[in-house]
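User: quick one, fold this
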Amino acid sequence: MTIISAGGTDIGRKRKTNQDAIFFSDDMNFYMVADGMGGHSGGDIASALSVELMPEYIRHNQNTDPRELLKNASLHVNRGIFNKASETPTLKGMGTTLVTHYFKDGALYVSNVGDSRSYLINNKMLFQLSRDHSLVQEKINMGIYTRDQAKEDKQKNVLIRSIGFDENVEVDVFSYKFNRHDIFLLCSDGLHGRVSDHDIIAIVNKNTPDLEKVQAHDLKNTITELIALANQNGGNDNISVVMAMVK
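Assistant:
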């Protein structure tokens, strides 16, 4: 199994700091996006801690069942951030979203807490793999309104789950049997909140017309264009994207 990848993060046009953090490693077959929140510098610290603690945990426990590994690694990060906030009053309440991709033994394993997203691009179509842990998603689940109507909800940034905010957290972990040439995309809400699914898949397809010939620089060009469009559409938040393709 050969994986190629690329990643990028941008401060956007409205924020003074970038509270997103990313990690991607083809050697580990592990990829992640974290979108921090809380206080003056809490979000920066929470997301930075997540991309420090989780890859380290994964690296030292790779013989564990992948589902258990991602769950335990996420809980390890949660404890690290929660304990850090408990030690420092100014950081109280900080947290982060956390979405990861881990390729192992012919399958993709996904973990998710928050509203950063996991997407699959297969046969030129885009599929959202993860489910947002947000108040808006709960309203959609209850049939209060449609996904399109949800875009106008003023509470669209309210999360019902995040890493580090509470001592314990529920982590979504699931698997997908991938195919050759599948492309996977992780992103913070700075992308999916400003760029439609239609535009995301259009940009991916434009930059990867011949899947046999796609290289890491094609993924990087895709990410650069996605970030540019998010900024063009307002850039109200930090924007982070990590892409990986099964070659």
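User: anything notable?
Assistant: Residues 12 and 83 are 30 Å apart (CA to CA).
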